[in-house]
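Service request form, structural biology core

Requester: graduate student, group of Dr. S.
Request type: structure prediction, single chain
Budget code: on file
Notes: please return the result as structure tokens.

Sequence provided:
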Amino acid sequence: MLIVRKTDYLEGKVKAPPSKSYTHRAVIGASLANGISKIYSPLWGKDCLSSVYSCRKLGTKITLNLKDDVWIVEGGEYKTPDNIIDVGNSGTTLRILTSLSSLIPKGYAILTGDSSIRKRPMQPLLDALKQININAFSSKLDGTAPIIVESGEIDGNLVRIRGDISSQFITSLLMLLPFNKEDTKIELTTPLKSKPYIDITLDILDKFGIKVEVLEDGFLVYGNQKYKNIDYTVEGDYSSSSYLIAAGVLINSNIEIINLFENSKQGDKKIVEIVREMGADIKVKKDRVILNGEYNLEGIDIDAKDIPDLVPTLAVLGCFAEGKTKIYNAEHVRYKESDRLRACYTELKKMGAKIEERKDGLIIEGVKKLKGAKLNTYHDHRLVMAFTIAGLKAEGETIIDNEESVKISFPNFIEVMRSLGANIEVK
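Core staff response, request fulfilled:
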């Protein structure tokens, strides 16, 4: 467990952890390219390593060079795995490789994961694949993993799918459909949520030489394309850096976060815009963010449609802001590693937060002060980090369980926070 105590001052220069979203897509893209690709500064987190290990099961040779901070990927045609593919806790790995596993030459691939993964919805993707002659189904026939995928050849040029459950379904199709012999249209039957994650996918596909046209109601993926091998450096992650930004905003601080790019396609760079709107005068340069807190924050209304991973951070910020913070359009946040809306409501309330849970969000009346408490994080890495920031500002001691889950997206989170002066320890 993590013991967090009130901290009065934070100072230092830290490098943002590499982007989780870009690392996943880069290593999987490289597995599809003939030849050797090099992924520099990847995220060595559990989720991204799940993508590495899963691609290896599909026959890709990947060398992990920790000394030079590079993954060397020898891509090419997939092979039929000789065992099940266990994606651990990585929904991104499960969703993307469900489609791509159909590229095996014969037989079946079976994908599963931990208890959380085996509850995540998959049926919209399975239904979409059926429309192009790819046979993939839930072994339990309930739309959840384990997922069994049969080797198959794409047949068809139209896929219709909802856009409001998970952008990962669309990413999965976008990465598969270049292998179709003909052009394929992805038609979205409901508005797209988490659009910035699709922007990241399109950015990575472009790097690998894959062309996709964005349409008013979906996407057109050109057929008969081949992934080209590349050398690629992963940029810093705004989702993970949101905890550092929140800490620097709430606590007396002098913090510089490097490797955060101003022109990034990551949707979660919106954290900068949000904290500014709340009253934090933070400085942004070409590749860094500078914080000199603490700032007096004011509550605002926040549309979380495209920034689901920021919701726990925003909930904590709302607790310390003056007035009301309303987070809405966030029902899809319930289908992450945990039901994050329910978790934020339940756990922050223990700390004295004045918080109300809605079907699609949270309403928070700022109380300025929280008190330390024993918090459950439901094995969810983003809750561990967000609640740690709440604990640094709260009176007394906060005890947070399952601190090891930060290895999923920010493996050295605790060390980085300590280097800034955070009063935290693992017991």
